[in-house]
Amino acid sequence: MRILSFLYIFAFIFIYCGCTPKEQQSPPSGYGALPSQQQVEWQQMDMYAFVHFTINTFTNKEWGYGDEDPALFNPAEFNADSIVAAAKSAGLTGLILTCKHHDGFCLWPTKTTTHNISKSKWKDGKGDLVKEFSEACKRGGIRFGVYLSPWDRNNAKYGEPEYLEIYRAQMNELLTQYGPVFEIWHDGANGGDGYYGGSRKTIKIDRSTYYKWTETWGIEKQLQPQAVIMSDIGPDVRWVGTETGFSGDPCWETFTPESDKDSSEPAPGQVQYWKSLNGTRNGRYWIPAETNFSIRPGWFYHTSEDDKVKSSNELLNHYFASIGHGTTMLLNIPPTPKGLVHPTDQASLTGFGKLIKEMYAVNYADGATITASSVRSSTKDYAPENVLDNDPFTYWGTEDTVTTGELTLTLKAPSIFSVFRLRENIKLGQRIDDWAVDIWENNQWKEVGKGSAIGYCRLVRLTQPVTTQKVRVRITKSSASICLSDVALFKEPAPLAEAVGKSQKGMVDKKGWTTDVKLSAAIDNNDQTNVNLSMDEWKKISPQGLVVDMKKTVKIKAFTYLPVRDNGYVDKYNFYISQDGKRWDLQKAGEFSNIKANPISQRVDLEKPVSARYFRFEPLHVITSFNQKEAVGIAELGVIE
């Protein structure tokens, strides 16, 4: 009787509770650092626009010194709605405006400085560009964000305690007068030479203490609690560590910032930024990466880059290398001096939007039948079918002790696809370490992709399309029970036929050019060879700079400098010309702004074309990589006529 009673009780539990003693009904606990609701909502935006537009647009610079006349700013045909429409044509979901760049010129009529748009000719000084953009975003149904450079090369109080109050007052204006903001963007460039209220000088600050970041961010959170805050170290979103438009693989959502050689505490502009590329597995904080890059080589519009606009197909490559690695994608669209998106940029954006729509038009996993090696319980909450509902927060779940497993999808019919997508429910943390995907081919499983990290989104392009009716996803290592929320299959669209050029018009042929034999790699037409000398060696070989004999007189309009990646970036220079190699005329003295973060080919236009047989490039200052000795790096020098 006792045995029968026990069986009746067991049957009652099985029938009425709907589970066996082995099943786990409660949700799994979160693993490691977890995202806030604001971070989750931000991650779902996928990709959005950066708009670099200020006084630099009219001075042809990347970084202004702070001595620019506000009257120069006059975008006669400016139309914020057209810029928002251009962003939307690419499928972008938001827009972040450079409300104040390093030059200190404010695009709104701020009460904190006279160096602002009210002193410009645009709309007779009565305009407010921030308002125009914020309202256009609202009309266009996309979200609005603000960039406010912590550095100010114009303000006389920069470097003093008073400037922090000015900076916070500017942020207060931006966060209280223009509606909801989805992201607040802080640049890591802080301190250096500038105009500073009329005095040309260099001001250095302690980046880890000067801005009192924890307190400053707290103020921003009070004013816009729904916004995420971005900087090199978060606290909500981190810079990916490069401006090339590619994130690391893997790129973990968690991160532990580490200070650089000049500080005991990490801070914006003072962190081992290259570690952001991959993040930190089991990092202390949930600080996912944002991959930012420009549709052009530079961040601001330059006529000389009209033939260097990234094509729609190139933008798709960046999409896979950013969103496909679990980051968001921040694409810069710089308006022209007229205040419009250049037609070439617009064509690339429109084409990119079409490629994305075409790729996602059909999910070949829709309607598949699916089986799992293990399920947390028989309730729908953890069913394997949840990976097919296109909801990033419903998921297939396993029991707490089960950290490996597999799903098998049988498609409705044999299908051709070339892209697969995996997602985790990030509300429960980043749990999965390693994964693999197989297809059924010739009566056996064939592995077509594997990797580490999934996070919010993992996109993988196959080298060529495959045809199959069965797909298997294997989780080969996980630090906690599996919570996989999405398996999707797509076909990458055929590349668009585009006519976006990549040439440097007017580049002078270097054939016959001569220089010191130890420096000849700088003019050999091969960017894979380079001059990379310690500063001591450079001073011995070429104390006055690199002298080039072009063997004939050339009418020089501009010169170009290609840096050596990873070390010895020349950021300040003098450029001279000569007819006889003895008497030299200084033609240009300046800086290559932002070259460390964006080490692309630099073009410098002279004030007017000059005729010369010789030119001399003199490095005045270099930026070196972490823990490397000071060095001069030159991959290529050239001139344009």
TrEMBL record:
Enzyme category, top tier: hydrolase
UniProt KW keywords: Glycosidase, Hydrolase, Signal
Entry keyword Cytoplasm: no
EC id: 3.2.1.51
Domain (F5/8 type C) ranges: 500-639
PROSITE patterns tied to this protein: FA58C_3
Pfam (any one): F5_F8_type_C
Domain of life, source organism: Bacteria
Family: Belongs to the glycosyl hydrolase 29 family.
Protein name: alpha-L-fucosidase
Annotated organism of origin: Xanthocytophaga flava
